[in-house]
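Quick one, T. Sequence first:
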Amino acid sequence: MVILYGKMKSLYLSYRATLVLATLIIFSSFGKTILLLGFVANQDYIAKNLCENRYQTERLCSGKCVLTKTIQKHDGQDSEKWPLKLKDLKENTAYFFNPPAFVLERTSIISILKPIIYSKISIIPSYLQDIFHPPQ
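C-alpha cells:
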C-alpha cells in the first residue's frame, strides 16, 4: 500500500477526478452509438418480436421502427434535462464604471522645457552677458 502525502496526494486525487469526468463525458456523448450497437446486435430478435410490422408479410423496416422510437425517446430525455433553450434566455448586461484614481494631464514638452530654459538664462552672470551679446 502506497501512502501519499501533501502535494502528491492532491495530484493523485485530481488525476482520478479527471479520469472519472472524462469517462462520464465520453459515455454521455456516445448514447446514440450505444443504442445503435444494441440494435445491430439484437436486430433479428427486435424484428421478430418487437417490431410494429412483424405481422405483415413484407417486413420492410426489419425493426428500424423500434430503433427510431428508441432514439426519439432518448432525445426526449435529453431535452427534458435541459428545459431552457438559448432563445428563451434573456441577456442582461451590466456596465460598471470605475473612475481612475488619478488623472494625468496632457502637457506639451514645450511647456515643461520653457521654465527650465528661462531659469538657466536668468542665472547667467553679468560678465558673460558683456562677452556674449548680439552684434551691433
